[in-house]
Amino acid sequence: EEVIQNNEKRFRALIENGLDDISLLAADGTLLWESPSTIRNLGYAPGEYVTRNIFEIMHPDDLAWTRKVFAKLVQEPGGHESGIFRLRRSDGTWRWVEAIATNFLNEPVINAVVINYRDITEGKQTEEALREERNLLRTLIDNIPDRIYVMDSQGRKTLSNTADWQASGGKTMEDVIGKTDVDTYPPELAEEFWQ
Questions:
Q1: How far is residue 114's CA from residue 53's CA, in Å, rounded to a whole number?
Q2: Helices in 19-151 by DSSP H: which ranges?
Q3: Residues 129-155: pLDDT tens digits?
Q4: Which of 21, 105, 159, 194 could form a disulfide with 38 if both were Cys (CB 3.0 to 4.6 A apart)?
């Protein structure tokens, strides 16, 4: 009994103090239980969403595909599914989460779909900012009339602007990236570049 109680305390401490969120869902998506971190991270009062359907706080753009994946998972005892989607916090903001769901509906002790997930909003925002910066940089580089390109230590182009493609005989970026001057220019011109 003492061993069982100690194990229970240990697992409770791990769950209650973990950074990742854990939710137990019924086969229809009803929230049965949530870890304390879920309350901290999503901002809802303890038990506020218990007995309610978790899809109520799912972003409208993610609703159809997540319902489909969940319905498929419910039909596969012991199955796993993972994905990235958005959940609404209590303050109305959307948070990106990365989740893995496991079907334990046939396990009498658990009898639920276990969802382990974590907030990846900052990473998604950083990724989006980088994408926008790359697009801006690409636009700027492509509109400079001078040839701009970057080569690696083997002489292969890793970046090339529109002026560079046009100078190489009307080729496209795909034609020059990863290639050397020898691959893309007439032999006499390539030799001159290499010199």
A1: 14
A2: 36-42, 60-74, 121-142
A3: 999 999 998 888 888 888 888 889 888
A4: 21
3-state helix, strand, coil in the chain (%, to 5): 45, 25, 30
Contact (CB, 8 A) for 80 and 100: yes
pTM of the model: 0.70
| Minimum mean pLDDT range among 16-25, 78-87, 134-143 | 16-25
CA 154 vs CA 88, 150, 173, 182: distances in Å: 49, 11, 18, 12
φ/ψ of 65, rounded to 5, equals -70, -35
Phi, psi of 122 (to 5 degrees): -60, -45
User: Structure tokens of 149?
Assistant: 């390109």
Residue with token string 């994946």: 69
Q: Quick count: other Cβ atoms within 10 Å of Cβ 140?
A: 11
**Long-range contacts of range 186-191, CB-CB < 8 Å, 24 or more positions apart?**
none
Both tokens assigned to 153: 């230590």
Residue 105 burial (CB < 10 Å; 0-12/13-18/19+)?
A: buried
Report the C-alpha gap between 144 and 169 in whole angstroms: 18
